[in-house]
Q: What sequence folds into this?
């Protein structure tokens, strides 16, 4: 049985919220057939959002600002109400549009880490963490000593053991973040929600907290729903990722699936960097599709739903290229000829920008490469790294 | 994340919890049961509606209906004379002029206090608030002592040099300056938190971008605090419209009449024309409403920016540098004229056995005659007790009601919360005299036997000061990030627990400040009290006004000094109590 099941969530904002939207979205009052003003035009925020989260999984909602990921998370928490749809936590229905079920957030038994941490400034470290236990005292019936033990354990888990009596506001950003985490862990919830928990930290700290989170999650066997706009974070932390755009889930898959076989231009460009080329499908034979591009024909082993003659988009990751001297090129190799226009040494790799028949292609190659800027070269790519999407399917 | 945070509207749950079992399909809707939140909401709404609704209803009734039924005759009596146009003009000039003085000085002082390294900060803070503890009637009288034509200490001194005095407390000019200076603390109180809550990195960013101090002030600071600035301007304008003691005392001798003094004379002339007084009141209320709702400053501070979030920052003060000395001197001069001289004048008069201009001789002859006389004034000791009790009780009730109401208005999506917002702010446009008149008619007829008791005063003060309590509570709450409440909610706290354990402690400084404010203004309230206090429920302001009318200036000055002392004591105690509970009171 899944830990969380979200089915067909729909939500739209009306009225006041429209002011914040681009002018084309703010329609005037429409009239229906009878000439009566109809309901004010509404703007969809969530459209048919459906997914399941399995126990022990970190499920990430990934997408750009305004894609609906936070709204989805807040709907699970009960802080917002979708118009229709259904949300089940374990076997409990916590929201159902059709049955009028709507549990208050405090009855959902969840924990949540907020983007701004939401550390209560009037309470010290201990009190911040003990709060969830204290307000659930009726169900939990813990003694003072038990509460103290649990709080200490939670603080230890996040390495804040020595800060127990500190004023919460005296903590640094990273410490506040861990405090927020301790507060979420102290009740040992079946499901924990994380709303961009790392976005307020600096890069170094973010990286180490990312590992910390992963370690904690695996150690405690947590089930989590994680919201972020940072694809690196999503890839590193998630069991599965749902990429969202404009209120819809565009693709769900493991980080590897999302990265290596994006199902749309949006996913390819949002997750990692992708080079985009246009072409037409020339032939499909077995698992090889051949696509005609401005710079020549190329083979792909990563495609679906193509038929001959389709207009197609080709996506290739920068790191999937190998740069070869034109002289060393062998017959039948897959790739394009391009002129290397610029290069940047990054230490762990070298980035090139190449011109391939007028298209700008980004390459990431072995750091030992150098001295190519200004020359022509063959950009080799294996057929399994050429992802082809049909524009006509 | 800009667009997302705009879209994500805080949506506190409004429905009842459902038992946490799986819901057995078949479209069975759970039965709706009111929760503690709904009950509290309905009670608050009902109480506010009763407090505000009844006096307005009786006021309208008394104005539009007489024995013969519906009539507009009251308006003809009130506005029919050619002098009425004069009255309207005077009212507007007076309100706008005094508001301009108050806003400019109040905002400037607040900026100095909150954001700069101006010298003697503590003193500046205390002194900025001093006019607040001077009841307006006392302030007006102190101005007469200082600048009142031939009797004023300064004006008669200047008249000796120039032939005639260039300054005069009497007349429109004197009224404007006196009322303006007297209202400075209100603006100061609204603006200090606004400046303090502002993230200084906004200004720093502008400085770094190449803007000079003045450009930063104009294009960043003033823009960010604009909501607070706009609403305090409107409130001060409305207060100017309703101001009663200063126009009556300083305007009367030169025949300068404004709406409130007209109401007062209509009520005290023979025969008392309550209908015409009501008609003038409606004039004030319309003007005030036009200001409030026309400028959009009426709504509770939802538009203000949330500035207290889970993250915190420590503002660093703006260095005044070489300007420090000049700014300090300017501030000092302001306090000399607005605070120190008036209080000294009161002290001098209270200690002089009879009224005369100061000289070595008169200073040597000072004694406590007036204070001894004061002690012999009828009812003075019970009245002192009454005043304190009524002010404390009224302030407490006001803050309880408005803290709850502010939550519903600012945070909830409850049905009718906008009505609640409008109702709590409505008393702002009801002049005290008019409220007193309305309540008099209500409780003379109603079976509730509170007329002539202290209870009716409490009811009047609570009604009158709902808008102020609301301002304090609402702005305290808008400064608390939603996520602090949401975090409690998600962690299992129900509405009341969240309210009590998260919101209340965080909003406590604001609420306590509001409480102190309501104590101060209740303590000196005169315009409604003068109609509602009976012989058994006398309070100090009424005794003061009676003594003034009887012309016993010495006793008036002595009583003024006593009242100021009591108010200072109340403030001091609240501060120390506040700090004992770890709450830093910020008035």
A:
């Amino acid at each position: 049985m899944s830990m969380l099941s979200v089915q067909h969530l729909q939500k739209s904002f009306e009225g006041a919220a429209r002011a914040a939207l681009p002018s084309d979205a703010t329609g005037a009052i429409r009239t229906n057939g009878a000439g009566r003003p109809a309901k004010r035009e509404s703007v969809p925020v969530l459209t048919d959002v459906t997914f399941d989260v399995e126990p022990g999984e970190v499920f990430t909602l990934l997408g750009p600002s305004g894609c609906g990921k936070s709204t989805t998370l807040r709907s699970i928490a009960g802080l917002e109400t979708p118009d229709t749809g259904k949300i089940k936590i374990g076997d409990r229905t916590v929201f159902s549009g059709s049955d009028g079920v709507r549990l208050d957030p405090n009855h959902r038994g969840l924990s949540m880490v907020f983007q701004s941490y939401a550390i209560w400034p009037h309470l010290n470290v201990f009190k911040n963490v003990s709060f969830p236990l204290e307000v659930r005292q009726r169900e939990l019936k813990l003694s003072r000593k038990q509460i103290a033990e649990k709080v200490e354990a939670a603080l230890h888990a996040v390495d804040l053991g020595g800060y127990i009596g500190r004023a919460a506001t005296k903590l640094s950003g990273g410490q506040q973040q861990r405090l927020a985490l301790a507060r979420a862990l102290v009740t040992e919830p079946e499901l924990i929600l994380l709303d961009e928990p790392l976005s307020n930290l600096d890069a170094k700290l973010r990286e180490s907290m990312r590992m910390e989170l992963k370690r904690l999650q695996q150690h405690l066997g947590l089930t989590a729903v994680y919201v972020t706009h940072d694809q690196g974070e999503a890839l590193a932390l998630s069991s599965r990722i749902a990429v969202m755009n404009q209120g819809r889930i565009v693709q769900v898959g493991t980080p590897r699936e999302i990265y290596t076989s994006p199902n749309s231009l949006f996913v390819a460009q949002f997750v990692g960097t992708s080079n985009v080329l246009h072409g037409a499908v020339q032939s499909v034979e077995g698992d090889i599709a051949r696509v005609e591009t401005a710079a020549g024909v190329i083979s792909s082993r990563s495609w679906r739903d193509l038929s001959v003659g389709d207009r197609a988009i080709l996506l290739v990751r920068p790191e999937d290229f190998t740069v070869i001297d034109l002289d060393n090129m062998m017959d039948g190799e897959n790739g394009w000829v391009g002129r290397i226009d610029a290069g940047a040494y990054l230490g762990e790799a070298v980035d090139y920008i190449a011109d391939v028949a007028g298209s700008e292609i980004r390459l990431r190659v072995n750091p030992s490469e150098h001295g190519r800027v200004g020359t022509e070269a063959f950009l080799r790519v294996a057929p399994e790294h050429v992802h082809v999407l049909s524009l006509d399917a | 994340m800009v667009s997302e945070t705009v879209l994500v509207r805080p949506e506190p749950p409004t429905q009842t919890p459902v038992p946490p079992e799986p819901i057995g399909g078949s479209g069975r809707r759970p039965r709706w049961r009111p929760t503690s939140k709904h009950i509290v909401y309905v009670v608050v709404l009902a109480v506010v509606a009763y407090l505000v609704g009844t006096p307005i209803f009786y006021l309208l009734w008394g104005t539009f209906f007489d024995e013969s039924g519906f009539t507009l005759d009251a308006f003809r009596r009130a506005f029919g004379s050619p002098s009425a146009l004069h009255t309207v003009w005077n009212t507007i000039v007076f309100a706008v002029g005094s508001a301009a003085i108050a806003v400019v000085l109040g905002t400037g002082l607040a900026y100095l206090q909150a954001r700069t390294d101006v010298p003697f900060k503590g003193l500046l803070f205390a002194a900025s608030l001093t006019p607040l503890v001077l009841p307006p009637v006392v302030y007006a009288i102190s101005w007469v002592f200082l600048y009142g034509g031939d009797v004023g200490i300064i004006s008669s001194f200047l008249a000796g040099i120039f032939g005639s005095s260039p300054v005069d407390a009497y007349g429109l000019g004197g009224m404007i300056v006196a009322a303006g200076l007297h209202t400075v603390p209100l603006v100061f109180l609204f603006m200090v938190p606004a400046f303090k809550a502002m993230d200084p990195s906004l200004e720093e960013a502008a400085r770094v971008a190449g803007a000079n101090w003045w450009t930063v002030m104009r294009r960043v600071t003033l823009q960010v605090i604009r909501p607070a600035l706009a609403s305090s301007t409107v409130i001060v304008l409305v207060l100017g419209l309703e101001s009663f003691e200063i126009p009556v005392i300083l305007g009367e001798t030169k025949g300068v009449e404004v709406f409130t003094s007209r109401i007062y004379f209509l009520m005290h002339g023979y025969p008392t024309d309550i209908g015409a007084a009501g008609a003038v009141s409606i004039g004030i209320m319309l003007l005030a409403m036009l200001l409030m709702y026309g400028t959009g400053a009426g709504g509770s501070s939802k538009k203000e920016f949330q500035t207290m979030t889970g993250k915190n920052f420590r503002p660093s003060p703006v260095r005044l540098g070489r300007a420090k000395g000049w700014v300090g001197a300017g501030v000092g001069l302001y306090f000399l004229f607005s605070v120190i001289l008036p209080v000294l004048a009161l002290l001098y008069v209270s200690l002089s056995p009879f009224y005369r201009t100061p000289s070595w001789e008169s200073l040597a002859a000072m004694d406590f005659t007036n204070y001894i006389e004061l002690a012999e004034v009828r009812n003075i000791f019970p009245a002192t007790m009454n005043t304190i009790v009524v002010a404390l009780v009224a302030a407490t009730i006001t803050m309880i009601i408005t803290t709850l109401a502010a939550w519903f208005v600012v945070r909830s999506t409850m049905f009718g919360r906008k009505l609640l917002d409008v109702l709590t702010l409505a008393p702002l446009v009801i002049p005290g005299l008019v409220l007193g008149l309305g309540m008099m008619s209500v409780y003379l007829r109603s079976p509730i036997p509170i007329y002539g008791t202290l209870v009716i005063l409490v009811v009047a003060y609570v009604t009158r000061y709902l808008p102020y309590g609301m301002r304090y509570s609402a702005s305290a709450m808008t400064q608390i990030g939603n996520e602090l409440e949401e975090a409690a909610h998600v962690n299992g706290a129900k509405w009341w627990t969240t309210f009590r354990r998260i919101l209340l402690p965080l909003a406590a400084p604001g609420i306590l400040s509001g409480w102190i404010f309501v104590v101060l203004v209740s303590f000196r309230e005169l315009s409604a009290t003068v109609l509602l206090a009976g012989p058994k429920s006398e309070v100090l302001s009424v005794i003061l006004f009676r003594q003034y009318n009887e012309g016993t200036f010495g006793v008036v000055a002595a009583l003024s000094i006593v009242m100021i002392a009591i108010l200072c004591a109340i403030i001091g105690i609240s501060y120390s109590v506040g700090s004992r509970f770890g709450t830093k009171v910020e008035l």
Chain A is about 20% helix and 35% strand. Chain A touches chain B through 58 residues (CB under 8 Å). The first strand of chain A starts at residue 4 and ends at 13. Residues 15-39 of chain A have pLDDT under 50 and may be disordered.
